[in-house]
């Protein structure tokens, strides 16, 4: 198989789908896996990574833009970590990047849950009447 084929297919992503829950589910799956690394065996980690890193058929149509952007972030983070390990980046700068990105990692999980709950309960997005308006009735 041509090694350039997956990259070319990935560059032609269709972004017409609004909320792609499959992509968000995949992102949560990966984030949960990373959170639980200390509790897993080396064999389990190897097997899970092999499954996570398997490109689906026709990735340009089957992977969401959210998932692709997430994986790009993972790649950038790993590359930044490599530079920190090689001391190309000083420890305080590496720590700052870690703290800053961790905020978004935590927020991402909460945002996905909030989106899912809003999708399940459309009334939750409706503005509630003011308390004083209900008292006058």
Question: What do you see in this structure?
Answer:
The protein is globular. By secondary structure, the protein is mainly α. The protein contains seven helices and no strands. Helix 2 (21-35) packs parallel to helix 5 and helix 2 (21-35) crosses helix 6 (91-120). The protein has helices at residues 5-11, 21-35, 42-52, 59-62, 65-85, 91-120, 131-135. It has one domain (5-135). The N and C termini lie far apart (71 Å).
Question: What is this entry, summarized?
Answer:
With 137 residues, this protein is mainly α. The chain has helices at 5-11, 21-35, 42-52, 59-62, 65-85, 91-120, 131-135. The longest helix is centred in the C-terminal third of the chain and has 30 residues, at 91-120.
Topology:
Layout: H1 5-11, H2 21-35, H3 42-52, H4 59-62, H5 65-85, H6 91-120, H7 131-135
Primary descriptors:
single chain, mainly alpha, disordered N terminus
How much of the sequence is in beta strands?
Answer: under 5%
The portion of residues assigned to helices is: 55-70%
How do the helices and strands follow one another from N- to C-terminus? HHHHHHH
Helical stretch tally: 7
Shape: globular
The stretches of 5 or more residues where confidence is low (pLDDT under 50) are 1-18
Largest sheet: none
Care to count the β-strands? 0
The tally of domains stands at 1
| Gyration radius, rounded | 20 Å
Please state the structural category. mainly alpha
Query: Alpha-carbon distance between the termini?
Result: 71 Å
Average of pLDDT: 77
